User: Which sequence fits this backbone?
C-alpha cells in the first residue's frame, strides 16, 4: 500500500542513495513471505549487516545475560571507557516488536556510547508473534531493574541511568518509565526516544507517508499489531498506547522524529502531552529522512546528526 504523497522526490540525496542500497540488499534474497516472521527477521538481519559492518571501536564490548521473566535475556554492554561507575543508557531496539536483535542495532548503540561517554546496555527482549503482549514490556522493565540492582558488578552508576530506543524500542522505553515507582524514576535522568510508536492507530502522518519505501506501510503496521496483540484490548493498554497514560512525573525526554515518517504524529503528540503533564522534553524533527534512518549513519549525515543530538542530550542529563 502506497501513501498519498510520493516521498521519493522529498528525500535528502544521501537518504535516497541509502534507500536504493537497502532495496538492493533485500533483493539479493529474493521474495520473502510477508506473513513469515522468521523469514522477515532473516531478511532484516541480512540488510542491516551492511550498515553495521563498520564498527566504531570502544574500550569494551561484552555479551552478557540477565534474568528475565521468561528466561535469561541476552544483552550487550558497550563501554566507551574503562572508568568505573559510568552513567548508563539501557537501549531497546526497534523492529515492530517482531524483528531485530543486538546485531541489527550494534552500530547505533556503539555510536551512542562513543559520543555520550555513557555505557550502553542493549537488551534482546522477546519478540512477537511467538511472545505476545506484554512479554517484551515485561522484559524491558526487568532489564532496567536488573541494571539498577547489579550496578556495582556492571561498573554502572545506579543514580545516573537512562532508557532509550528506536521505533518499538522507544515505546518500550516510555512504558518502562511508566511502570517504575517514584524512587526508581528518580535514577532515570532522561528518555532517549527515536521515531517511536506511541499508540496512534491513525493519524495525518500515517495517511500521508505510510508506504513501502521505508518498510512501514499501513499493511506492515497492521501485521505487527496483529502479531503482538492477544485481543483488541491490548492496543488500549497504556503500555502500548503510551499517549493514553498518565505521563506526569516521567523523566525528561529527548524525542527525535522524521518529517516523512508515518509515525511522525506519534512523536508530536507525545511531546505535546508531556509538555501538558509538566515533563521537560525536546522534539527535533529531521527533514528528508525516513523512519529507521538512524541505521544509515555510514552514509547519511542526518543520521549522524540525530545520534550526536541524542548523545548530547544524554551528556546534559547525566551532568
Assistant:
Amino acid at each position: 500500500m502506497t501513501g498519498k504523497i510520493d516521498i521519493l522526490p522529498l528525500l535528502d540525496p544521501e537518504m535516497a542513495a541509502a534507500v536504493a542500497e537497502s532495496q538492493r540488499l533485500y533483493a539479493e534474497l529474493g521474495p520473502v513471505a510477508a506473513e513469515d516472521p522468521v523469514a522477515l527477521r532473516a531478511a532484516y538481519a541480512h540488510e542491516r549487516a551492511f550498515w553495521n559492518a563498520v564498527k566504531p571501536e570502544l574500550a569494551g564490548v561484552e555479551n552478557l545475560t540477565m534474568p528475565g521473566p521468561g528466561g535469561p535475556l541476552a544483552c550487550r554492554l558497550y563501554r566507551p571507557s574503562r572508568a568505573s561507575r559510568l552513567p548508563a543508557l539501557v537501549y531497546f531496539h526497534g523492529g515492530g516488536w517482531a524483528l531485530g536483535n543486538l546485531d541489527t542495532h550494534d552500530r547505533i548503540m556503539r555510536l551512542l556510547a562513543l559520543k555520550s561517554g555513557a555505557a550502553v546496555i542493549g537488551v534482546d527482549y522477546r519478540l512477537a508473534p511467538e511472545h505476545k503482549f506484554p512479554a517484551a514490556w515485561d522484559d524491558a522493565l526487568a532489564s532496567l531493574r536488573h541494571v539498577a540492582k547489579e550496578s556495582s558488578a556492571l561498573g554502572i552508576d545506579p543514580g545516573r541511568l537512562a532508557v532509550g530506543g528506536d521505533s518499538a524500542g522507544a515505546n518500550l522505553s516510555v512504558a518502562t518509565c511508566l511502570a517504575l515507582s517514584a524512587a526508581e524514576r528518580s535514577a532515570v535522568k532522561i528518555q532517549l526516544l527515536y521515531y517511536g510508536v506511541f499508540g496512534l492507530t491513525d493519524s495525518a502522518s500515517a495517511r500521508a507517508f505510510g508506504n513501502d519505501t521505508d518498510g512501514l506501510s499501513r499493511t506492515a503496521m497492521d501485521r505487527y499489531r496483529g502479531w503482538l496483540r492477544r485481543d483488541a484490548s491490548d492496543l488500549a493498554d497504556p503500555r502500548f498506547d503510551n499517549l493514553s497514560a498518565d505521563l506526569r512525573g516521567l523523566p525528561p525526554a529527548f524525542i527525535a522524529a522524521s518529517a516523512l515518517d508515518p509515525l511522525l504524529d506519534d512523536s508530536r503528540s507525545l511531546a505535546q502531552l508531556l509538555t501538558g503533564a509538566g515533563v521537560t522534553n525536546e522534539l527535533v524533527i529531521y527533514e528528508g529522512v525516513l523512519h529507521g534512518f538512524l541505521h544509515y549513519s555510514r552514509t547519511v549525515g542526518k543520521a549522524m546528526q540525530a545520534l550526536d543530538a541524542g548523545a548530547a542530550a544524554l551528556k546534559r542529563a547525566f551532568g
Observations:
- The CA atoms of residues 52 and 107 lie 5 Å apart.
- Residues 8-318 form a domain with the Rossmann fold fold (CATH 3.40.50.1820).
